[in-house]
Amino acid sequence: MSTRRAFLSTAGAASAFVWIPKGIKGYSAADLRAFSADGSVKPGISKWDLDTPALCLDLDAMERNVATMQAALKRNGLPSRPHAKTHRCAAIARYQLSTGSIGICCAKLTEAEAFFAADIAPIMMTTSNPAPQKIRRAMALRKQNPQFIQAVDEEPNARDLSAAAKEAGVVADVVIDVAVGTRSGIPAGAGALALAKVIDTLPNLKLRGLLSYDGSGQHVKGFAARKAHTLEAIEANAATQAAMKKAGLNVEIFSGGGTGTYNIMHLVPGFSDVQVGSYLFMDMQYLAIGGEDGNEVYKDFAPSLTVTTTIMNNRFPGLLTTDAGTKALTLNKPNPGVVGEPGMDYTAGSDEFGQIRVTEATRTYKIGDKMEVIVPHCDPVVNEYDQIYGIRKDRVEVVWPVTARGKSQ
Amino acid sequence: MSTRRAFLSTAGAASAFVWIPKGIKGYSAADLRAFSADGSVKPGISKWDLDTPALCLDLDAMERNVATMQAALKRNGLPSRPHAKTHRCAAIARYQLSTGSIGICCAKLTEAEAFFAADIAPIMMTTSNPAPQKIRRAMALRKQNPQFIQAVDEEPNARDLSAAAKEAGVVADVVIDVAVGTRSGIPAGAGALALAKVIDTLPNLKLRGLLSYDGSGQHVKGFAARKAHTLEAIEANAATQAAMKKAGLNVEIFSGGGTGTYNIMHLVPGFSDVQVGSYLFMDMQYLAIGGEDGNEVYKDFAPSLTVTTTIMNNRFPGLLTTDAGTKALTLNKPNPGVVGEPGMDYTAGSDEFGQIRVTEATRTYKIGDKMEVIVPHCDPVVNEYDQIYGIRKDRVEVVWPVTARGKSQ
């Protein structure tokens, strides 16, 4: 509870007063599209006039987050290759590429296909594709898109990929997914090196290097603990990279890391780029990990992604019901953070409704009033929505489709 | 753990052998659409040939569930008005209406708009619309669709609705949402009666009765406890209904209940129809509530909704990684149930990956192998998908769009 309050205070969220104009209109995305055909919105539409629940992105905050990340990575000599699974939005991918990122990562083949259909080309698929049809589709995508790179983590799959690449008439770029932890990838060491050597002999594959993403490392609390965990967890992978290099194999890519470890990965010998994602948006999960300055709250990046919601019931003491439940905010923890109201605890446990336990409130909330919450975990929340409203100074500037929404195959 | 095993055993899921053919193809929805323009699929496509994660509905099981429900409600003299928030699928709504349901319920205005656009007319919106633009849209929908009924739970909103109905040139059908518990609606008693009397005087509203949905009652474990809880919780609402009737107000609708209480609601005097939803699909949550026969597992309806998933990693002892994580299965509890493998505990905690702790397995799972899981909670899982594959005897019979996917405003 004290930690949640600290987040909300730090997130500039504890200001005692949230300005919500009178005369809330409840505009739908269709209303806004009717105002403008090109996705831009005529000035003057307040985010408080949007129909709720609406997924809102503070563009100033997001742009500052990108600038902060790019400056920090530049200081450390590493480029970013952001993970697009976070935003699933071609407009945001385009912004990342225009501000210095060297490419994007995709976790799912349908996601990669959707981004390429939206003219995003430098794509690294970080997950292997074990099904025959998917292998063929990946190689068909590679044929259209020479900048497509495919992850692989076992010899039979590498052989199938090479055969499919041959069928498609290409030599396909691949990276080996080397495990950190026990989720995906081949364990570091002799097996990974042997796989690299096999791939190097396959006629229709071109080895580009390796991936080593440490999912569990991102949310270790406290910078010192996170740094120690991260460097220890990747030690065997770094040794594998060195062995691959010594064996004359291509290791130009040695990619991994994320928003929690962006300022750690440059300490790993041979590392090539950082797969940051959540830095754009932030969320209650990342606010909780603690910063390099020793603070309990991670302040390197500012929360930019919120959901606006309407009060549906205020009749029961100490409780408010809202219109944003599991389908709008997911069940991720920590709970969504109500902006400006550190004395409220929001749970999104009903499919269609949120419920707030109110310990303290800065004002009285009536039925029909709106509020704004910081999302619990950005990736799955974005995936619930068809569009992101780009907001600047509380006004809607643009409506972006979530290009790869639901592309989970 | 023992309970989870009991579910899986009872769900016909513990058969030691799950038949998965060789040569899995990984067909996408687009592949299937290419086979057939009308949504029907040429015979012979196995569900195991679908790209994963795929949302699969066993049509035989669903049809049996509907028949069971309709027969039980008929015995008890109550019709069903199923909640379409569960499936968000026009094809399924059409099936429900064709098998005796008197209408559908919608929780969100955009959901109701989407169903009406798909030619589903008898719609009762069970949630109020407090925003001005939404009130107008609801009345615009009423103008097009005379079978639309709107919930209302406070006097200012009733007056706004009447004004908007006048603007639209209609007299709109409304029901009062009377609270059971502390989520939505006006508390039962004098306030609710007074609201009903006000509505009865408003020129552009026609009072049809009241709603009383008890969300917390549905999942009370054990039939006797559930029955006692339900009848006690709705007592004040039944008294309000009686007082409305005595005051000469229209109470033809007194609607509520759900899959957990379908065989209880007929005991409430004046009750008119049951808002069942999950009975179609079932899920791990409902399997846990216990049946009227005293069994720990609720067997009145059979699980029909599953997600197929592919093994992505099998290298770490006692662990399997799959391609269905939070975005495919949500974080609802109880955990997804692996069909045929009661010794596996599946968590969908990663955005893109599932992880299984294996205590016992009936066979060895290799990378690329598939399995099938019963969904943890049907409503939010359906909302992650653009289509439902209708399966009969393991073959794809039809591909249904999730008509109102993401319609959470």
Written account of the structure:
The first copy, chain A, is built from 13 helices and 16 strands. The first copy, chain A, has helices at 2-13, 29-35, 59-76, 90-98, 109-117, 132-144, 155-168, 190-201, 223-233, 235-246, 284-287, 326-329, 378-382, and strands at 54-58, 104-106, 123-125, 148-152, 172-177, 205-212, 253-256, 273-274, 305-313, 319-322, 337-338, 344-347, 354-358, 370-374, 387-392, 395-401. The first copy, chain A, has 409 residues and is an alpha/beta fold. The relative contact order of chain A is 0.18. Chain A folds into two domains: 2-59 and 298-401, Lyase, Ornithine Decarboxylase, Chain A, domain 1 (Beta Barrel), CATH 2.40.37; 81-275, Alpha-Beta Barrel (TIM Barrel), CATH 3.20.20.10. At the A-B interface, helix 6, strand 9 and helix 12 of A face helix 6, strand 9 and helix 12 of B.
Summarize the structure.
Chain A is built from 13 helices and 16 strands. With 409 residues, the first copy, chain A, is an alpha/beta fold.
Highlighted features:
homodimer, 409 residues, alpha/beta, Lyase, Ornithine Decarboxylase, Chain A, domain 1, TIM Barrel, 9-stranded mixed sheet, 7-stranded parallel sheet, 13 helices, 16 strands
